[in-house]
Amino acid sequence: MNSIPLDAEAKALEAPGEHAAELRLWLRMLTCANLIEGTIRARLRDTFGVTLPRFDLMAQLDRAPDGMTLSDVSRRMMVSNGNVTGLVERLVESGHLERRIHDQDRRAQVIRLTDLGRAEFRAMAAAHESWIA
Amino acid sequence: MNSIPLDAEAKALEAPGEHAAELRLWLRMLTCANLIEGTIRARLRDTFGVTLPRFDLMAQLDRAPDGMTLSDVSRRMMVSNGNVTGLVERLVESGHLERRIHDQDRRAQVIRLTDLGRAEFRAMAAAHESWIA
DNA sequence: AGCGGATATTTGAAGCTTAAAATAATTCGC
DNA sequence: GCGAATTATTTTAAGCTTCAAATATCCGCT
Q1: Could you tell me if B11 and A62 are in contact, meaning their C-beta atoms sit under 8 angstroms apart?
Q2: Is residue A59 a contact partner of residue A121, using CB atoms and an 8 Å limit?
Q3: Residue A129's pLDDT band (cuts 50, 70, 90)
Q4: Which of residues 47-66 of A touch strand C (CB under 7 A)?
């Protein structure tokens, strides 16, 4: 489950504010978003034994058959570089990803889904779509 | 910044779905919520050197002058017990909270803001309100 | 009194996340 | 072609978060 910072925002509601309605809406939205996100996390975990960050990373790679560099992934997922490093490490370890040095740039590496990774992702994505609906 | 699981959801948009509009709205909402949350995190960190979870915990306690038990906090914040244990530990360490054994129940402990904790929280809350607006 | 189930909290293992510092390789300008 | 700035990645330290197992205490029932 995600951090739910709503009570902090809720505090503002107590102020004799003029923006009470907006804040209330905002609060609701945040609560709703976090609850749904938590549900998705739980389903991915219980059904496929995968975390949401891993799933997201695989989703990126599923759309890039030729692979992506870590920086690309980092930008797309809007997370730090170091974060991607660890995520990729674990997914390579589990056999879902493969990495190789970039042809033209020896600093970078290209990662892509393995056959296993692709197969598992597709299965998860199918279930995921029906959940969303 | 929070995890941003949007790309995963975005994938669903590519499907020749019937729910495209709903999903798109949902996606927007999530993006928006996460961006704002990230902004608040950054401001609290840069301005007061405090994290959002700590701020949330202090917000709970500010509303409970007589203190709360860890379980109360856990339920209110909707996070695990173990999470609260660590959070409280660090806040006691930094002098913002004090803990004492519950009078009637030796299993439980009551935590409350110290004078320092209350003063700092009030300052942060004031800034927080103006940010929200 | 004493047993058994519930409740409060802690601990430990694992993973996610970030920011900042360190490495390594590329590119640009001269 | 050399040096500086940029870019790609990793490492490190710290904190957050969860789940599950372990402790300690309480409460109700006999």
Answers
A1: yes
A2: yes
A3: confident
A4: 51-54
The alpha carbon dihedral of A58, A62, A65, A70 has a sign of: negative
A128 chain-B contacts, CB cut-off 8 A: 8, 11-12
* Segment B109-131, tens digit of pLDDT: 999 999 999 999 999 988 887 77
Contact criterion met (CB < 8 Å) for B56 and A8 = yes
Q: What is the mean pLDDT of chain B?
A: 84
Closest nucleotide to the alpha carbon of A89, via C1': D10
Nearest alpha carbon to residue B64 among B116, B98, B113, B121: B113
Kindly report the nearest CA distance between residue B105 and chain A, in angstroms.
Answer: 27
Hey, CA dihedral for A78, A84, B48, A24, is it positive or negative?
A: positive
Calpha distance B5→B112 (Å, rounded): 35
Model pLDDT for residues B24-59, shown as the tens digit of each residue: 676 677 777 788 888 888 889 999 999 999 999 999
Q: What is the pTM of this model?
A: 0.82
